[in-house]
From TrEMBL:
Signal peptide: none annotated. One of its GO terms (molecular function) is S-adenosylmethionine-dependent methyltransferase activity. The keyword Methyltransferase applies. GO terms for biological process: methylation. The keyword Transferase applies. This is Methyltransferase family protein. It comes from the Bacteria. It comes from Flavobacterium glaciei.
Length: 288
C-alpha cells in the first residue's frame, strides 16, 4: 500500500479509530486543523517559537503532510512555505491546497518536493519547522544541510516528534510495534547521535534536545496530567498492596519508601523512555 492508501484504509477500520483521531488523519481536513490548533502540542510549540524567535515572520514547514501544521502556522499570522512530496488530496499537497482555498490564505505557498531537494534561496526563513518528518529522510545529512541552508543566520531550525532508536534491536522493536508499518513499510528512525551530528555538521548549534518525557510535544496525545496521574495511581496501588500485607504500619512514610524502593517504583524507573518503542524527541537549533 502507499501512504495514501494506508490512511484511506484505516479510516474504515474501527480498531484504528483512536489513531485516526489522535494523529489528525480524519477525512475532514478542516476538523483536523481545528483540533491540531487546540492541541497541547501546538500550544507548546508556539511558546518555543515565541521564546527563540519572537520577531519571526517567515516559516518553512517541511514535510507538511495533510497541511495541519502549515495551515495552523499561517492562521497564526506567519508567512508560510509548505514543502510536501506527496501530491495526494487526502494526505499530501493536494490536501494543503484545499485548506489554503478554504481559509483563503494568501500567506501560504505549497511546493511538492523532498526536503533533500529544496529549490529555495539561501537564508530565506526566520524559522524552519519539521514535524514528524526528519526520521523519514532518505539522506539525513542532506535533509538537515538543506534545512540549514535556507535558514537565516541566527534563525531557528526546530524539529518536532522524531522517532529515536538506540541500536539495531531497538529499531526492530520499534518497527514491529508501529501500527502502520505492516501496511506501507515506510517507517524509520535514527539514533540521537545521528540527528545531532547531522545538525552540527550543517552549521547548527543545538540549543535544546527534548527527550520523550521532557515535553508534552513528544508524548502528546497524553497530557501532563495523565502522565503524572499514571505514576500516582501506580504508587497508590502499591501502598494498598502494602497495607494488605502489614496493615496500619503501611501508613508510616519510612516503610512506604522502603517498600517502593524494594519493588523499584520511583519516578526515574517509571518514566523510562526505554520502555517506549520509537520514543520521540524534538530539537531546537540556531544557525550559526
Amino acid at each position: 500500500m502507499t501512504w495514501e492508501e494506508t490512511i484511506r484504509f484505516i479510516r474504515t477500520q474501527p480498531e484504528y479509530k483512536y489513531l485516526v483521531d489522535k494523529a489528525y488523519f480524519e477525512e475532514d481536513l478542516i476538523l483536523n486543523v481545528q483540533r491540531f490548533m487546540q492541541s497541547d502540542e501546538f500550544r507548546e510549540t508556539l511558546k518555543l517559537l515565541n521564546q527563540y524567535q519572537p520577531n519571526a515572520k517567515t516559516i518553512l514547514d517541511i514535510g507538511s503532510g495533510n497541511g495541519i501544521s502549515a495551515v495552523a502556522l499561517a492562521l497564526e499570522g506567519y508567512t508560510v512555505v509548505s514543502i510536501e512530496p506527496d501530491s495526494s488530496d487526502t494526505v499530501g499537497a493536494g490536501a494543503i491546497r484545499k485548506l489554503k482555498t478554504h481559509y483563503n490564505l494568501d500567506n501560504l505557498e505549497v511546493y511538492e518536493a523532498f526536503a533533500e531537494e529544496l529549490q529555495l534561496p539561501n537564508d530565506s526563513f526566520d524559522i524552519v519547522y519539521a514535524r514528524q518528518c526528519m526520521h523519514h529522510a532518505y539522506d539525513l545529512g542532506k535533509f538537515v544541510a538543506e534545512a540549514s541552508r535556507v535558514t537565516k543566520k541566527n534563525g531557528l531550525f526546530i524539529t518536532i516528534r522524531d522517532h529515536v532508536i538506540f541500536n539495531k534491536n531497538d529499531k526492530e522493536w520499534f518497527l514491529e510495534n508501529h501500527p502502520l508499518q505492516k501496511f506501507y513499510g515506510g517507517e524509520n528512525a535514527f539514533k540521537p547521535t545521528e540527528y545531532k551530528n547531522a545538525m552540527e555538521n550543517a552549521g547548527l548549534e543545538i540549543k535544546k534536545e527534548m527527550k520523550y518525557y521532557d515535553s508534552v510535544i513528544n508524548y502528546f496525545p497524553s497530557t501532563k496530567e495523565e502522565i503524572t496521574n499514571i505514576f500516582q495511581l501506580s504508587k497508590s496501588k502499591a501502598i494498598t498492596h502494602l497495607n494488605n500485607k502489614i496493615g496500619i504500619l503501611s501508613k508510616i512514610s519510612f516503610l512506604q519508601k522502603l517498600y517502593l524502593k524494594k519493588i523499584g517504583l520511583n519516578k526515574k524507573n517509571f518514566y523510562d523512555e526505554n520502555k517506549i518503542p520509537g520514543r520521540m524527541y524534538s530539537y531546537l537549533c540556531i544557525k550559526k
